[in-house]
Amino acid sequence: MKNVIDSFVSLGHWPSAGSFGFNTDILATNPINLSVVLGVLIYFGKGVLNDLLDNRKQRILNTIRNSEELRKGAIDQLERARARLRKVEMEADEYRMNGYSEIEREKQNLINATSNSLEQLENYKNETLQFEQQRAINQVRQRVFQQALRGALGTLNSCLNSELHFRTIRANIGILGAMQEITD
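That's the ATP synthase subunit b, chloroplastic sequence above. Prediction below.
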């Protein structure tokens, strides 16, 4: 082992004129190594980097297009809301002209419709609660049944020895034989 180490150490002390050796001067070799690594990374990584930047550019452009479409949609909605507001304001003027009785009647209709909607929502909520309760009860029943079945099987397996098993089989065979004689 010492000979191998000595041979590498001695390689570092060879003169550099026309021979091969290790350059042990760290300050001289690091910039060269870094420039080679950076050159290789730039040469081979340029395509990957360009692809990544193109993909990012396309995503940004798509996001901008989507934002523009959303902005146009929002402007359209705003215009429709303004038109609806103008219509409602005109209707309000008509209501004022026709008197407060019409407003009271519309108010009552709205209250009734809202009350009906709330009642329907309450009914749907109650039905959903009943359904979820029934489902929970069924799940609990199923778990209890499975646990009882496991317990019964465990009890049967622990209590059933081979002698009792053979007697049960003989008794069942006897019952089947008697049933066959009756059917003949």
